[in-house]
Amino acid sequence: MTTPFDEKPRRPGLFARLRASFLTGIVVILPVALTIWLIWTLAGWVDGFVLPLIPETIKPEKYIGINLRGVGVIIFLIFTIIVGWIAKGLLGRSLIHWAEGLVSRMPVVRSIYSGVKQIAETVFAQTERSFEKACLIEYPRKGIWAIGFISTDAKGEVRDRATTAGDLVGVFVPTTPNPTSGFLLFFPKEDVIELDMTLEDAAKLVISAGLVYPNKKDPRKPLEKKA
């Protein structure tokens, strides 16, 4: 019940409305601006590395009169595609095998080369197996739930020596907000709850520390259950 003496809710002042509009604009502009800046900076970095290696007689700026950012990126992509195409052939595989044999005889260089090659193959090789699904597991104790990524079924000595009756599943449990680090744990298959969300949505949930849920209609709310 209201009375004539009840205070009416005060409307926000002009400064408060301007401040709210400014913050909303920042939320809209900042992701777009950062994305453009990162692409622009990366293109400039690649240009600065590639263009000095191009002879002056065939540089595009000599013919068009201006230095277009991104030309080095295009040249790098074309060069990489050509190298990859050659490497798939018999001659390319023979040259790579010969070069790796030469590098393997260099004490310091072989360590650097093998480490970089392993990282590159893990990150870029299309033949490498990736995570299968996102899941929920009880970690680090019962009653506490964590997001994980199912990698593969346990095999070999890990499977044979584990004191469990059922099959084991390898689960990568990432850290927040950096999902590239984490823990590899093996759980009984019945203790792993597979989620309907995609791997990308689960990664967003981890990176945002639980603030961004996989809901296309409203990312701040959990995914609606299917009927």
- Rounded to an integer in angstroms, the radius of gyration calculated over CA atoms is 27 Å
Instruction: Give the end-to-end Cα distance, rounded to a whole number of Å.
Output: 42 Å
Q: Tell me what portion of residues adopts beta-strand conformation.
A: 5-15%
Q: Report the top-level CATH class of the domain at 133-207.
A: Mainly Beta
Poorly predicted sequence stretches spanning 5 or more consecutive residues: none
Task: Sum up the overall morphology in one term.
Answer: flat
CATH topology name of the domain at 133-207, in short, is SH3 type barrels
Average pLDDT metric: 81
Main sheet characteristics: 5 strands, antiparallel
Helix share bin: 40-55%
DSSP strand tally: 5
Element order, helices and strands?
HHHHHEEHEEEH
